[in-house]
Write a structure and sequence with these properties.
two-stranded antiparallel ribbon, 288 residues, mainly alpha
Length: 288
């Protein structure tokens, strides 16, 4: 198998040349970074559309965008480095090398939510309304950004022979991501794995659809944000279980992302029912 090939044999898809980078005017640009940039632009576009459709000031989205992207990227990198410290403690310069990947979505999301809170405080905006506006765009950015993992041949799952099984050249992936099970099924210099980037992309598209539908019937500010947290967390909880590059809590074998995903699901469900119960109690008190 060619070192630049990627195949989905059961779907009849055979890509002979999928490079990790391209050159423009003598500058080498990694597809990983280019895909993330496209995801950011698409996320901004959707947030602006949502703001306009529901009568909100789209200028505020533009104002927040650069702050959110900047601090989101920093948060994504910090999160990844913290939970992969055993690797980076012996390669400190590597902390600043993003060309090989190493951005944790959760870190970016956490940083973006914190940045948005500070932004709303400064601009005297409703934080929960802004979350509702931005959440679909955030999910779209994540859905597209996952294709950066496709070009990097990373963040894949265990061996599988399912319909969506993906074949990668063994020489093109990081050795520590190849488990014994994957290695035992390797053939012709290729491994066959779950394309978890694709699973998460498709799942996020479903979450986006749900958010946009529920927008028309939402009953309180922040409801769409809860749909995002719960929906994304639910998908991430099971998709993460396939992956071979999980980050673990220090001194344990507990996957950080799966644990956080479970917390998000519980938080979103509990918060939703709490807010709805409070609204019913307020309505009942008003009728009295």
């Amino acid at each position: 198998m060619s070192e630049t090939a990627i195949e989905f044999p059961h779907l009849g898809i055979y890509l002979d040349h999928v490079p990790k980078s391209f050159t423009v005017f003598g500058f080498t640009i990694a597809y990983y970074g280019a895909v993330i940039a496209v995801g950011m632009a698409a996320g901004l576009w959707l947030a602006l559309r949502v703001a306009k459709k529901y009568g909100h000031d789209s200028e505020r989205i533009w104002d927040f965008f650069l702050y959110g992207i900047f601090f989101g990227l920093i948060g994504a990198r910090i999160y990844y480095v913290i939970f992969a410290w055993d690797y980076y403690k012996n390669d400190l310069p590597g902390i600043f090398n993003l060309r090989k990947g190493g951005l944790a979505i959760y870190g970016g999301v956490i940083a973006a939510f914190i940045t948005l809170y500070i932004f709303c405080k400064k601009k005297k905006l409703n934080y929960f309304t802004m979350i509702d506006i931005c959440a679909p765009g955030l999910a779209l950015g994540q859905a597209i950004g996952r294709w950066g993992n496709f070009f990097n041949r990373e963040a894949f799952g265990e061996y599988t022979d399912c319909l969506f099984a993906m074949r990668l050249p063994e020489a093109a992936v990081r050795p520590h991501e190849i488990t014994e099970l994957i290695a035992s099924h390797a053939a012709d210099g290729a491994i066959q794995v779950h394309p978890t980037f694709l699973y998460e992309c498709l799942w996020n598209l479903m979450v986006i659809t749900a958010m946009l539908i529920i927008w028309k019937f939402k009953q309180f500010e922040g409801e769409i944000g809860l749909v995002y947290l719960g929906g994304y967390g639910l998908g991430r909880a099971w998709i993460e279980g396939f992956r071979t590059d999980q980050l673990f809590l220090a001194g344990t074998r507990i996957p950080v992302s799966q644990l956080l995903a479970a917390v998000l699901v519980v938080f979103s469900v509990v918060t939703y029912f709490y807010v709805m119960r409070k609204k019913k109690m307020s309505s009942a008190a008003g009728e009295d």
